Amino acid sequence: MTEILPTNGYTDGDVDTNPSTQISLEALAEARYSRRQALLRGAGATTMAVLGTSVLAACGGDNNETTLVVSAGDSAATSSGRVVVLTGSVTAGNTGVTSSAWAQNSGTTVDLTISGLTATFIAPAVSAATDLKFSFAVTNADGETAVSTTTVRVSPAALGFTAIAHSLEDIAVVPAGYSVTVMTRLGDPLAAGVAAYANDGTDDNFAQRIGDHGDALHFFGLSAAGSRDDSSSTRGLMVQNHENLSVDYLHPSGPTNVSTGPRPADEAKKEIEAHGVSVSEYADSGDRTWAYVQSSSFNRRITPMTPMAFHGPAAGSAMLVTAYSNNGTAGRGTINNCANGISGWATNLTCEENWAGYFRRDASDAALRTGNELRALARYGVSSKTGNYAWSTVASTEAMFQKWNATITGASAAADYRYEPNQYGWVVEIDPYDPTSTPRKRTALGRCGHEGAFVRVVAGQKVGVYMGDDSRGEYLYKYVSNTAFDSADASASDRLGVGDKYLDNGTLYVAKFNADGTGQWLQLVYGSVPSLPATGTYPEYVFADQADVLVNTRLAADALGATPMDRPEWTAGNPVTGEIYLTLTNSNASKRPLNGTDAANPRHYGDPNLSGSTSYGNPNGHIIRLREDGDTTDATTFKWDIYLFGADATDYPSDANVNVSGLTTSNDFSSPDGLYFSRDTNPAGQINPVLWIETDDGAMTDRTNCMLLAALPGNVGDGGATTLTNKDKDGNTATQATFAGTAATAANLRRFLVGPVECEITGIDMTPDGRTLFVGIQHPGENGDAAAPSSHWPDSQAGTAAATVRPRSAIIAITKDDGGIIGL
């Protein structure tokens, strides 16, 4: 008699596995008709030739007659990340079956979820075709046991969905086999007792509501008991930035005097509080049925008035003194929060991007400033006579409104807000698990228009933080900690204290890209940064100390001769290779003229639109990537190439000078912005991780709304040298040598999502198991107003919405209907 194999006792926390499953006669009868089935679910799963499935029959009675016959199903094939369902059957001797069991015999170990005759698992990540063998065993009432085996061949990860076509619909379009759930939206309440959002302009109290223009986001896992759990895929905290406003929809009939002032206090307060960061609890009630928890004790709003602490070399500098902090160590608030970074110790890094325009400077201010101050203010763009939304024109002495006026009015810096602009432009660290904690502005990472801050943490190496400065002609930065990372710090309870250790003491660098495909990191260290020569009306700028270098990082990078880039935005790191990717969203003819290209920013061309006009420069953008020499974060040299060039494949189907990457209408894109690699806790982030690309486009929006693409990228150097012939609006040409990655194909780049009307796709993360993808939809209908909304999303996601419904920024949860890994 064949001995029964032991039952696999795996449980994923949601499914109880009974080690001795009683099988009903009805189930046995049904199984008889599926005895040779090995059901493989997931897009593109195929059945391969039988590899030798065996059926072992038990011997019953003295005459050795075969009485119990079982089947584990035919052998089959799939690829990494797809759902596999093994279905066993009993075809003879099935009277009084007492137990059945599935077990894995060989191959990469998987987690089996067993229910009766079936066993389900996610195909693991593999680097080459790998056979996984399984056994199905049954015992009947006579004590007879039979065992059958089957083989599943798993191939390396492949994109497993049909590419989405261009779309101008007012919905988020995803591939067949996927579903969308709308999660937190603009105005959703974050505390018990706060009324539901009316969405008619009458709502207030944004200090307890989800803010506007949701941007970068991250899911921080929670255990069932409510503590940090990095592996949780069913409960967590969603931390999201709130970059800006669709101000016309926030008030009943739009804003009052928004450009010039005076502003009503209630309108200005609403707008101020709608900026910042939100923390909200998300929970899965089962099978990836997601909702947010309005009354969670973890919910929090961080606004432009939330107390902040300055840390690092610039803390206490005279350049940070204000009427709120006479010693320059404290501040209030964060604003224009764009992309983010996630530390290796479970904190969130939110980045202050286009903060400069919020500040007002009256005409009288210039005569009261030093030459150095005027040069720094001009370099950062603090020049408005009213400031965005004219908040400082409110007839009130409250700091909430007056802090936006940077005009010198007092006898000293401690008597006014002349240096309030210097309190912004930083990377801010937040502990999402502690709603009472004070966020810390990390001055060692420099001050600029921070788009994002990708953190690379490798045990035994120094912590590296890679940051883009989001403006045309700005730079790529890297910060390297003085101390190598201790893996014990990953689980420390004093998370902001760990941040002090790694983010307050280190070296800031700026990138120089060479024409030969190499690059250098230039130190932004006092003593090694030369003075800036006098220019125009500005005197020579001599840096006073390290605080000066960090407060005026752009000036220091100018002095070192860093490479100006085509609007550097998000950074992301390949979790397997360590290579760093940077989106360069676009540039125009004034910043990237025909005779002003370089190897890292090599294109100048024209992009026509349906109105008949043509934009010149690099209107579709590109993605550059680099690999540190020695694969260490503290390397001072690197290799680089251009991974992808954006292009409109309809306008340029075959012009290799523009459509350098060979895009087609199933994967063309423009203005890459957000970047994200799938988490390395699931097959989509292992071996050959999936890269997700989000767009913030104005060049192709006559053809399609903004989008999200999935890619399987290669490595730096997988392409080669090429020379482009650029052409300006007058027909003049010039050549530019560069380095391009391997061409795009349907196998390595596909469009996964297209958003609703006039939106930006921004903010992305997934649960650790890779089975839910969270994506931000920002400012749908941004060109409409309260009287005539140009989008009605997210209401339109469920069907036709009323013509008066106002659009709202929101997060969506995308799940695969078969429960598989997103994208594969």
The profile of the biggest β sheet is:
9 strands, antiparallel
What is the third-level CATH name, the topology of the largest domain?
Neuraminidase
What is the mean predicted local confidence, pLDDT?
92
Cα-to-Cα separation, first versus last residue = 42 Å
Shape type: globular
Instruction: Tell me the name of the CATH class of the largest domain.
Output: Mainly Beta
Low-confidence stretches: 1-65
Radius of gyration: 29 Å
**CATH homologous superfamily of the largest domain - what is it?**
TolB, C-terminal domain
User: Architecture of the largest domain, according to CATH?
Assistant: 6 Propeller
Q: How many distinct helices?
A: 8
How many structural domains are formed by the residues? 2
Question: Strand order of the main beta sheet, please?
Answer: 24-25-27-28-29-37-36-32-31
Structural class designation: mainly beta
The proportion of residues in beta strands is: 25-35%
The overall strand count is 46
Helix proportion? under 10%
Briefly summarize what is shown:
This is PhoX family phosphatase. This protein has 824 residues and is mainly β.
Highlighted features:
8 helices; globular; mainly beta; disordered N terminus; six-stranded mixed beta sheet; nine-stranded antiparallel beta sheet; 824 residues; 2 domains
3D structure, described in words:
The protein is mostly beta strands. It is built from eight helices and 46 strands. It folds into two domains: 25-155, Immunoglobulin-like (Sandwich); 178-816, Neuraminidase (6 Propeller), CATH 2.120.10. It has a nine-stranded antiparallel beta sheet. The chain has a six-stranded mixed beta sheet with strand order 19-18-23-22-21-20, covered by helices on one side. Strands 1, 4, 7, 10 and 11 form a five-stranded mixed beta sheet that branches. A hairpin with a 5-residue loop joins strand 34 (605-608) and strand 35 (614-618).
